[in-house]
Specification:
By secondary structure, the protein is α/β, with parallel strands linked by helices. Helix content is about 30%, strand content about 20%. It has one domain: Alpha/beta knot, CATH 3.40.1280.10. It starts with a strand and ends in a 5-residue tail after the last helix.
């Protein structure tokens, strides 16, 4: 079974993280949360957004970026940024890849992007728009990877519907 990892570097809005947790739970992606965060993990808003999906979640917490990189040596990291040169569809994602997303108010640190410029990717959007919502960006990234992998271990639409067309 292929493994997809979602990394949130210093997330600030509990509802976004809750929505992302729900996306991870529904797709089998692992979630990595890197502190400091703008909320506590027991925040009601976080739990409400993820609702009853928390028990399906594979989640790991880290003290900071250094702690994450030390515990995930040689990880295949892909950094999502509005400043990146490559589109998210230009990349061929390997098994056990990590999609890294930054803070809602600041994105990923410039230094991190410069150090990893060949693995920085963006989601195309209108020039006058600053960025997509973080949870929407994660969903776009997750489903592009899963599309490339032919949606391993996910139900086909015909299995989900109880309606006859």
């Amino acid at each position: 079974m292929k493994t997809l990892n979602i990394v949130l570097l210093e997330p600030q809005i509990p509802q976004n993280t809750g929505n992302i947790a729900r996306t991870c739970a529904c797709t089998g992606a692992r979630l990595h949360l890197i502190e400091p965060m703008g909320f506590r993990v027991d925040d009601k808003k976080l739990k409400h957004a993820g609702l009853d999906y928390w028990h399906h979640l594979d989640i790991t917490y880290y003290l900071d970026w250094a702690d994450f990189t030390q515990k995930n040596k040689n990880a295949n990291l892909f950094f999502f940024s509005t400043k990146a040169p490559y589109r998210h569809t230009d990349i061929e994602y390997p098994d056990n890849c990590y999609l890294v997303f930054g803070r809602e108010d600041a994105g990923l640190p410039e230094e991190l992007l410069k150090e990893n410029k060949d693995n920085c990717i963006r989601i195309p959007m209108q020039a006058e728009c600053r960025s997509l919502n973080l949870s929407n960006s994660v969903a776009v990234g997750v489903y592009e990877v899963l599309r490339q992998w032919d949606y391993p271990h996910l139900k086909e639409s015909g299995e989900l519907t109880k309606y006859k067309w």
